[in-house]
Amino acid sequence: MTHQPSLVKAAFWMAGWLTAMLVMAIAGRETTRELDVFQIMEMRSVIGLLMLYPLIHLAGGFGTLKTARPWQQVGRNIAHYGAQFAWFKALTLIPLAQVISIEFTMPIWTAILAVAFLGERMGLWKNLAVALGVVGVVIIVRPGTSEIVPGQIIALAAAVGFAISVTMVKSLTRTDSVVTILFWMLFIQSVIGLVPALEVWRWPSAYVWGWILIIAFCGTFSHYCLTRAMLHADATIVVPMDFLRVPLAALAGWLLYNERLDMMTILGAALILSGNLLNLKGAGARKT
To answer: What DSSP letter does each residue of 70-123 carry, written as one string?
Structure first.
C-alpha cells in the first residue's frame, strides 16, 4: 500500500494532530482532577470507537478492517497504552508545559528506531532538525535549575513509548489502511484497560463528561491525522514537525492561564521552528 510523498499534505495532517493534542492535554489536566487515569483511558477508547464508526462505514464496514499484521497491532498498542498512561499520569504530577517539553525527546528515539527498523536515513537536514528541536526544548525546560522529580521520569518513559508506537505505525501504513489502524488501536486498548478501569470506576460529573468527550474525539482523530501524515512522509520528517507543540503550549498557557512567556521560551521556540523549516527545506530539495 503506497502513497505519493507530499510534504504539503503531511504538514496539513500534522496541523490537525498538533491542534488535537494541545486540546487533549488541557482536557486531560481537567479530567484527572476527578477521575483515575485508567477510567479516562477506557472511556476514551470506547467512546472513540463509536466516533470512528462513520469512517468505518465509509471505508466499507467492519469487513474491511482485517489487518495483515495482527501481532504488530497488538505490540504497537501495548506500547501506546503504556505511553498514554504515563502521559496522563505525568499531567497530574508536573506542570503541563513541562510534560509536553519532556515528551519532545520522542523524536530522538523515533529517529533511532526508524533508522534501525524501517530503513530510513537521517541525513544532514534531519539531524539538524532533531538537534535544533532538542536544544530548543532544553532551553525551555532549563534542566539543572531544580531536582528531577518522578513526574519527569514518567514523562520521559511516555516519550520512549510514543516513539515505539509512532515507528510501528509507520510500518503498519505499508499494509493496513488508516481506519484499520485506528480501529485496532481503540479495540485493543479498550480490552487492555477494561479490568483496571472497572476497579477504579466512578460516575463522572456533568463537567467532566464534557472533557471526556473532547479527549475521546481528539484522542481518536489526532491519530487519524498522524497516520495520514505518515502516509505522505517519513517518520523522521513528520515527527520533528511536532516540535511546534511546545511553543503552541506556551502560547496557550499565556492566553488561557496568564502564564508568563519569558525570553528563554521565545528563544527555544525559535530554535524549534528553525529546525522544522530546515527539515522541510532539506526534504523538498531531495524531491526536486
So the answer is: HHHHHHHHHHHHHHHHHHHHHHTTS-HHHHHHHHTTHHHHHHHHHHHHS----H
The DSSP symbol for 176 reads S
Of 259, 241, 279, the closest CA to residue 18 belongs to 241
| pTM for this prediction | 0.76
Each residue's pLDDT, cut to its tens digit, for the chain (288 residues) gives 556 667 788 888 888 888 898 898 889 888 988 999 999 999 999 999 999 999 899 888 888 899 989 999 999 999 999 999 999 898 888 777 777 777 777 767 777 777 777 777 777 777 787 788 778 777 766 665 656 678 878 988 998 899 899 888 878 888 898 899 999 999 999 999 999 999 999 999 999 999 999 999 998 888 788 878 878 777 667 767 777 777 777 777 778 767 666 677 678 777 877 776 776 666 555 555
Q: What number of other Cβ atoms are within 10 A of residue 61's Cβ?
A: 10
Alpha helices, DSSP H only, in 206-262? Answer: 206-232, 235-241, 245-257
